[in-house]
Amino acid sequence: MSTDLPKFEGVGRAGVVAIVGRTNVGKSTLLNHLLGEKVSIVSDTVQTTRNVIRAILTEPRGQIVFLDTPGVHKAQGELGKNLNRAARSAVQGTDAILLVVDASIKPELEDDGWLRRIASEEAPCVIALNKSDRQSNCAEEYKQLWAEIKAEKESTKEPIWVAVSALRGDGMAELLNLLFAQVPEGPPLFPDDILTDYPRKLNIADVIREKYFHKLHAELPHALAVWVESIDEKENKWTVEASVYVERHSQKGIVIGEKGRLLKWVREQSERDLYEMYGVRFQLKLWVKVEKNWRKNFWILRKLGYA
Ligand SMILES: Nc1nc2c(ncn2[C@@H]2O[C@H](COP(=O)(O)OP(=O)(O)OP(=O)(O)O)[C@@H](O)[C@H]2O)c(=O)[nH]1
Ligand SMILES: [Mg+2]
Asked: What does pTM read for this prediction?
C-alpha cells in the first residue's frame, strides 16, 4: 500500500463531512452510493449503524472524509443513549454537515431535533431530501419546519436543500458538487488508496449483523451483537471465528433457527458479501452465546466500540 498523498488538480479541497439524521433515513445507503462501494451496512431496522464509520472519497478536485453516524432514535437504554451521543458529537469540528431526512414521510421528533441542532452549528449544512423515488413527497414540510425553527432561534443560517434518492443514485453528482463547495481549500488528509479506516474486525462483525437484521424483526435485532474473535488470513482463504451475542436463552434458538437454518443462511450470505468486499474466500465459524443484559454492560459496549 502506498502512503503517498494524492495530488489534486489545481487548488484542491479537503475536509470532513458528518452524515447525520434520524435512524432509517438512508445515511449509510447514501454513503455507499457516494463512494461507489459498500463500506457501511444497511437495513430497515432502527439503529443499524452502531459505530461512527469514516470513509474517504478522493477525486482530482479534492478529498472528502465522510463520517457515517448512528441514526438518532428515542433512546432505549444504555446502548441507545450511547449511539445517540456518538451521533450528536460527530458534528463537532467537522467542515460541513450533511443532514439526511426521509422526505417521503413527514418530519418526526428526531428530525426536528437535528434541524434545531444545525441552526446553532457554525459549520455549513446541506440537507439531503432522500427517498425522492417514492410517490409521497413531504419536502415542503421540512422546509416549513426549518423556517419556524429559524425564526424561533433568530438564526441567519441557510442550509442548501437537495432532493436525492440514495437507493437509485439520483442527485448524487449534484450533492457531491455541493459538498465539495462547502469544504475548505487544502491538501489531502489521507492517501487515495484508503477507502475506510474502520477496523476489519468491526466491519466483518457488522456484515454478519446486517444479515440478521434482514431476517429478524421487533426487539430481537437490538438484543443482538456480533464480535469477531479471530481472523486467520491465509493466502487464498480467511477463516473468521465470531460470537453472536443474544440476551436470553429463548433468543438463542431463534438466532440459530430450525435445524440451524438461519445460522447457515447468515453464514453463507456473509461469506458471499465478504468475498465481494475483500476479494478473498471466507470461512465463517459462528458461535451463538447468551450474554445477559450486554446492552447495559459498559465493558461489553466498550469492547464492541459502542461506548
Ligand atoms: N425507497 C428508498 N429507500 C431507501 C433510500 N435510501 C435508503 N433506503 C432504505 O431505507 C432503509 C434504511 O437505510 P439505511 O441506509 O440503513 O439508513 P440509516 O439512516 O443509515 O439508518 P441507521 O443506521 O439506523 O441510522 C433501508 O431499507 C434502505 O434500503 C431511498 O433513496 N429510497
Ligand atoms: Mg446507517
From this structure: 0.96
